[in-house]
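We emphasize that the prediction below concerns an isolated chain of 146 residues; any contacts that depend on oligomerization or on bound cofactors are therefore not represented. The input was used exactly as deposited, without trimming of termini.
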Amino acid sequence: MKICLILTIILFSTFYAPAQTVKKTPANALSAAKLTPAYSEILLRKTERESELEEFSLDYTEEFPKVKEIKFELGLLNREMEKILAVNQSDSGKLTLALGKLLVRKIELETDLWNLRRQYNDEHPEVKRARRKVEVFEKAIKEILP
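Result of the prediction step, given as a token string:
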């Protein structure tokens, strides 16, 4: 009986009390954005790519094409993370896992486009096709976050 009472108090203090004492400040808004599924999805991809970069950096220089590609993608990932952190707290419900997956896929397509542009001019059919794919994802993302 005593254990049940202790567990109840712990559960109450863990889940209920913090909710009453947390003030809505800009710092809390940033923390809230970091707890969203969309942010987590991008963070996962960023971590995977940073890990790959570490691996390549052991054997290759900064000029190695794959190193350049990963650094380009990391820049895009950082940009999207900053955009998520800038979303109003009232819109944080839109930061779903599906949105995170859309953002990650768009970044992958932007990286593919970047690679193609390094090989071909903007009028090349492959570049045009890749650019259209990016635009499709951008349009879908704008439906969720205008």
